[in-house]
């Protein structure tokens, strides 16, 4: 089966964003543990809630990269993982806002991008690649 440009684009965007998030997650974990210091910022004093969100974001990034590869290879688990990844990203942003993070352009952009990717993955032309046809089920 041939990969459509839409699937390829979504996979590459998700892989790129997951990669950036993974690098950011590593840096934040180093800052949280006191292994690195930038601008004299002491992130070791952050609440356990925000520390948990950083770790969750790091793990979500790994899921995003792995599922982007599966999506690009037209694997059903890649499509399911990509939908899960986008949903978890939305949830992580929402929890950060509920925890007291100030709303910013980045949060709004992330939410809009996740929503757009979910909409793209839900398009009938893309969904039909990953879901068995009715005649195949019977």
Describe this structure in words.
With 138 residues, the protein is mainly α. The chain has one domain. It has 6 helices and no strands. The chain is elongated and about 55 Å long.
Identify the notable features of this structure and list them briefly.
138 residues; mainly alpha; 6 helices; elongated
Describe the secondary-structure layout.
Elements: H1 5-32, H2 48-72, H3 76-98, H4 105-121, H5 124-130, H6 134-137
Helix pairs in contact: 1-2, 2-3, 3-4
Brief summary of the model shown:
The chain has 138 residues and is mainly α. It has six helices and no strands. Helix 1 runs antiparallel to helix 2 (48-72), helix 2 (48-72) runs antiparallel to helix 3 and helix 3 (76-98) packs antiparallel against helix 4 (105-121).
Number of strands: 0
- What structural class is derived from the secondary structure elements? mainly alpha
Mean pLDDT rating: 84
SSE topology string = HHHHHH
Structurally, the number of domains stands at 1
Helix content: over 70%
In the predicted model, the low-confidence regions spanning at least 5 consecutive residues are none
What portion of residues belong to β-strands?
under 5%
Measured distance between first and last alpha carbons = 21 Å
Computed CA radius of gyration, to the nearest angstrom: 17 Å
**Total number of helical segments?**
6
Q: Strand count, sense and closure of the main sheet?
A: none
Shape: elongated
